Amino acid sequence: MSGLTRQQILDHITGKVLSLPADTLGTSFAELWDCLSGTDTVTATGVETSLDDRTLTVSGTVALPGQDPVQARFLFTGDPVTALTLRLPRPGWAYWDTERSYDLAAVREALYPKGGAAPPTPTAVVTAPLGGTYTSRVELPLAAPGGAPFVLLLSQDEQDDQRLVLASPPGQAVSLSTLGELTGLPRLKDCEFTVPTEIPLNGLRLGALRFVVDARRSRLESVQIRVLAPDWEISKDVSVLALKDVGIGFTVALPPAPAVPAVSASLGATIALGDAEVTVSVTLPQLDLSFTGYLPDASMSKALPTKAQQEWNGTGLSLEEPGISVYGTANLRRRSWTLGCRWAGSLDAGTTRLDGLSVEASDQGAGLTVTAGARATIAGARCAVTLVKAGGWEFQGTVSDADVSAVLAWIGVPVPARITLDAVSVLYGFGSRDFTAMCDASLTFQDVTLELDVVAQKTAKGTALNAGLLVDDSSSPDVFPLLFTGSYAAGGKDVEAELGWKNANPLQVTRLARYFGVSLPDEFPKTLLPDIKEAKFTYSSVQGASNLALGFYFAYVSGGLVVMKQ
């Protein structure tokens, strides 16, 4: 419908009396006005008007059934009018319309008991667009610290309609000189509001309030307060220690008398990770900070501290991929912190997958430490890789439970046996260039089992290799198991090598020969084939002198052959 013009509304004012048919303001408002007044005409006396670019305001006395006359305000928006806002005081602490009904007496008794401060007057605010449905709310003006106005909106709890909630809408802020001024709020005079002394408290502002009232018992149950505090920059170089949008939260639980109110405090803030902001929470009084989040457009290179990125540059790995999960902890008292980033992407190619790149920077008081890790799966083999930065880069890798035969078949080299790689560990120091590799593997073919242990080292002094191979055949327990060992060491021009085998119990050579299908005549003297306990082949070349030795160790005697070259 087409609304009235401002002039047409002014024409309905005669002798400071407004008389305006309600239906000229829309069907929805007409229904509301009929519910409030029982008439179809809006009437106000002692009218005053004011104009601005968007709104015509008409103020006047309105008499409604069942209550004393009140000073109401009608705000007409647009020209012609497109919407009307009615501000209607409710000194009787009750409000009803076609949609809702509030008995506010319980709120008045809970917040302003008899004998205390005089309660303010709640105001019903109705907004009615001419072509739509009206909405209504109830406001309670509150005298905040310093006497500044602070508005609370009334609503019913979603879970219990007998529990009324008074909460401040966003956008309000009232200056506070100290936290102690919060005791001037309704029913909070016996409370104490304190926080750790490390938190800066200059320029405090009251930012939000929330009162919860049990209407059945006319009792205030709890109060939530949010105080806005200044930015807290402990370290400008570490984002985890540079807090913005700091808010101190207080929750006051008010149990029935004679129990005393209980006050708990918390702290919330945001930190900047590159171009993104992440919300963090801080426990009080411990000052322990924690957060988790996902940044779809950010990369590790922007989120990590500058010093951590500089440390990372030595790896040659890129941190530019967007889409990261972030997490962090800190103690704001000790100034210790941890900040981690995980890349959300993955790379798949057949039976190979790489994912889970993570980089973590921390300083627990002993200086910056940067660590990194990733996961890889190749033909079912699980691989974990870690890079540690603590004075110098160290690379650590582990492969566990790898089916080597499956990997070889995937590469294109099928084998008729099952080879299981139990564990491979690699350590490499980027600064020292020291390298260590440790391998445990096993091979099973029918009744035969081979277990291999290898340790390889490369340092500035030289290289070394130690290996052990345990061979067992469950079908021949009188021969096996046999343990083969090998070692190799080289430094400069010097070389030492050893290869041998030994058995826990002396091995009869005749049994070993029989195992390989060699049958000896019965008349063959067994004394010529004694039981062997150990055999060893060694080679060394030290300062130009070479030695070659072959030794056999029998149950009761040993023998050998030594060749020397000077």
Secondary structure blueprint with pairings:
Elements: H1 6-11, E1 13-14, E2 17-21, H2 27-37, E3 41-51, E4 55-62, E5 70-77, E6 83-89, E7 94-96, E8 101-103, H3 105-111, E9 123-129, E10 135-143, E11 149-156, E12 163-167, E13 174-176, E14 204-214, E15 219-228, E16 232-233, E17 242-253, E18 262-273, E19 276-283, E20 288-299, H4 300-303, H5 306-312, E21 322-331, E22 336-343, E23 346-349, E24 352-363, E25 368-378, E26 381-389, E27 393-403, H6 404-411, E28 418-429, E29 435-445, E30 448-459, E31 462-473, E32 482-491, E33 494-508, H7 509-515, E34 531-542, E35 545-554, E36 558-565
Antiparallel strand pairs: 1-2, 2-3, 3-4, 4-5, 5-6, 6-9, 7-8, 9-10, 10-11, 11-12, 12-14, 13-14, 14-15, 15-17, 16-17, 17-18, 18-19, 19-20, 20-21, 21-22, 22-24, 23-24, 24-25, 25-26, 26-27, 27-28, 28-29, 29-30, 30-31, 31-32, 32-33, 33-34, 34-35, 35-36
